[in-house]
Design a protein that fits this description.
The protein is of the alpha+beta class. Helices cover 49% and strands 18% of the residues. The mean pLDDT is 85.
């Protein structure tokens, strides 16, 4: 397993020496394990002598991914985060009508708002929507964007591109009181294997204290990154 993990972490076909260095075993041990793994198809050796994951590894990985329930994994970790910090966090998915709240974790003290499970948010004006806008394929969000532009909004096409650039660079979308007066929101993507935001976790607060912002930024960001890794995401896969 150490040898397989080493090859997986290296992300490309590598020579024996690189596998040895990564897994920390002796060259002879590593070579024996590679030979055995190659017999089962877990590893393949190219004509130039380099090693890579084999077809059996791919089959095993795809089977494991098929059994992952992204919502359950995210809900459990977000729930633990809220219990530990007292934060109020909503979990949203992108539905046909727009970003939709699928889970609402009430913090301490509870925040009074009209938002609830099933509420649909703006793709342009909400922090949650801006994350989906940035980290979902354009084909999936364009109809929602066009609908809001048609209804009338102070955000034009140029501003949309600016929002996407800012969110992509920062890895978070922040909205302060513009959607719901008195409420501030910071939304973080939860990525799937393809690097798409399959879910968004948004912390909601009435506080403008900079220390609170820093705490949310660090801790919830780390939770979402952890969930994304479980779902098979690698950071380099976000274009």
């Amino acid at each position: 397993m150490r040898v397989l993990e080493a090859i997986s972490d290296l992300r490309t076909a590598v020579p024996l020496a690189a596998v040895v260095k990564k897994c920390g075993l002796s060259p002879s041990q590593t070579h024996r394990y590679l030979a055995s793994l190659a017999e089962t198809g877990m590893v393949k050796q190219h004509s130039n002598g380099t090693y890579d994951l084999g077809p059996s590894s791919l089959k095993l990985g795809l089977s494991a991914l098929a059994r992952i329930d992204a919502y359950t994994i995210a809900d459990e970790q977000i729930s633990a985060f809220c219990k530990a910090t007292g934060s109020t966090v909503l979990l949203a998915a992108l539905g046909p009508a727009g970003p939709t709240i699928v889970r609402w974790h009430i913090g301490r003290p509870p925040i009074v708002t009209a938002l609830a499970v099933g509420s649909i948010m703006s793709i342009l004006h909400s922090a949650t929507g801006q994350v989906f806008l940035t980290f979902r394929p354009e084909s999936e969000v364009e109809a929602l964007v066009e609908e809001e532009l048609t209804r009338g909004t102070d955000i034009d096409r140029d501003r949309i591109e600016t929002i996407k650039s800012q969110v992509r660079h920062a890895g978070v979308a922040a909205v302060g009181g513009s959607l719901i007066p008195g409420l501030n929101a910071w939304a973080y993507p939860i990525f799937d294997l393809q690097g798409h935001a399959i879910l968004v976790a948004t912390v909601v607060t009435t506080s403008r204290d900079t220390q609170v912002l820093a705490s949310h930024d660090d801790r919830l960001r780390d939770v979402c990154r952890s969930i994304s890794r479980v779902l098979g995401f690698r950071p380099s896969e976000v274009a």
